[in-house]
Amino acid sequence: MEYGKLLKAARKQLPEAILKKSRFEVPKVKGHIQGNRTVISNFNQIADFLRKDVNHLVKYVLKELAAPGNLTKTALIIGTKVSASRVNEKINQYVKEYVLCPECGKPDTKIEKEENFLFLKCMACGAKHSIKAKI
Fold first, then answer.
1. Any bridge partners for residue 115, and if so which?
2. pTM, to two decimals
3. How many CA atoms does the CB half-sphere of 88 hold within 13 Å?
4. Strand 109-114's sheet: what is its strand order?
5. What is the pLDDT of residues 57-71, one digit of tens each?
6. Exposed/middle/buried for 40, CB within 10 Å: 0-12, 13-18, 19+?
7. pLDDT of 48
8. Three-class SS of residue 9?
9. Is 78 in contact with 67 (CB distance < 8 Å)?
10. Domains of the chain listed by start with CATH number
């Protein structure tokens, strides 16, 4: 039998759920500018959606924006005026670096530390990639 036919036969036997690619969409930030500060009210929900530590995400976003800020129980307060599109851009960069698996593209990952190195471990395909510890 030809390889192509064998491959098609094998794909027919797979469950449909494996072949479907669900669209992973990060929620957009909701917030407002209050004086010289920017208040992002749904930052904790975004971190929960990404299944990452909220403090890790805060450190990354503030460092990338080169702005001071602090996290309260209800919101992230950035010490300068920042547009929502710029914050969304930085969160999407975070997703590419620390959330999505480079092999399969799925968001089912976790950050593991082994000795002095950080690795992005995919729970879906089992791939393991080293990541830069920018933070």
1. none
2. 0.79
3. 10
4. 109-114, 117-122, 128-131
5. 999 999 999 999 999
6. buried
7. 93
8. helix
9. yes
10. 25-99 (3.30.30.170), 103-135 (no CATH)
